Amino acid sequence: VNEIGLPNFDLKPGREHFSLDIPKIERNSAYKYSKSLNKLFCELEKRVPLTIRADNLDEECYPYFVRVTPYFSRLDFWQDVVSRCSFHTETDQGHVNGIDSSSNNHFIKVEYPNALYLTHNGRPSVMAQLSFQNNCAPVHLKYLCLSSCAGSLNRRDINVVVEILDGYHNLRGRLVYGVRVCASPLRDVKLEEKRARRQGQKCCSVKSETSGGEEEVHILKIKHKSLFDKVKKYYDEQVLLFKLRQNKQMLAELTRQRLTEAKEEN
Fold first, then answer.
1. Residue 60, H or E segment
2. 224 is an annotated ligand-binding site residue
3. Range of lowest pLDDT (68-77, 147-156, 173-182, 205-214)
4. Which of 15, 23, 56, 126 is deepest in the core (most CB within 10 A)?
5. What's the maximum distance between 2 C-alpha atoms anywhere in the chain?
């Protein structure tokens, strides 16, 4: 029995400094990548070319492999497995999508003749050998279910974790991006970017208050917990620096006073 593990969305460029490139395309293309959202919007079962880049490759690690695994991005659904809906699974029989029927529940297909469809971290995953030329390796993916499919993604956001392994299957790098499979990528990317900008503008509000002769107090209300944690960390660091500067100034003043007193005594 394969135990379902938790996802790891932390980027890991590794010693090779891996990065992921999704090329810009024409307006009417079957996919659209939003850099600001780090999210790919694409049509069902349409080929999307990716490029894994590296600054420097280690000859001792050859051959390199890529392992692609989809996860639900929200904490509430981390224990759920991303797989295809029953409708699309039953529609594809045999090798219609180049995947054996025993692995027909896989949401992602890698267009590579020797791709291996397996279970990783308790979830459907696919692995293939990378072919680097000039420190670039192409990877062509297809997404075999819509984000709106009931009984599958069911309109839940997902992240795709791209892991680069060495010839001994040790992890060398990890890259992550979001995916939405839809009928109109251009329309949906515009809507989500607009929504993100609007939420960014409304995520916090600032208010200043004074009471009599008391010191002015500034109140910052923040909606998103992740943003609050970042602001609080920055605030705590600044408070610590302020106290250190104050202590340094007090120490310098105390030193000057003692030197002055010592001179007067002499």
1. none
2. no
3. 205-214
4. 126
5. 101
The confidence score (pLDDT) of residue 100 equals 56
Q: How far apart are CA 33 and CA 177, in angstroms?
A: 10
Q: What CATH number should be reported for the domain holding residue 155? A: 2.60.40.720
- Cβ contact 117:99 at 8 Å: yes
**Same domain? 55 vs 164:** yes
Instruction: State the Cα–Cα distance between residues 202 and 107, nearest whole angstrom.
Output: 35
Q: pLDDT grade, residue 166 (50/70/90)?
A: very high
Nearest to 44 by CA among 4, 84, 80: 84
Residues 175 and 240 occupy one common structural domain: no
10 Å CB burial of residue 44 (0-12, 13-18, 19+) is middle
Q: Does the annotation flag 88 for ligand binding?
A: yes
pLDDT score for 176: 96
204 is in an annotated binding site: no
Same domain, residue pair 182 and 235:
no
pLDDT in tens, 79-124: 899 999 988 887 765 444 555 555 788 999 999 888 999 999 999 9
Residue partners of 192: CB distance under 8 A and separation at least 6: 34, 37, 39, 41, 180
| 95 token code pair | 């090798």
The pLDDT value given to residue 202: 56
Residue 90 confidence (pLDDT): 79
- Report the SS3 class of residue 226: helix
Question: Which tokens hold the place of 196?
Answer: 């993100």
Structural contact between residues 37 and 192, judged by C-beta atoms closer than 8 angstroms: yes
Q: Summarize pLDDT for 198-232 with one digit per residue, the tens.
A: 876 555 555 555 545 555 666 777 766 767 777 77
What is the token pair recorded at 21? Answer: 């490139």
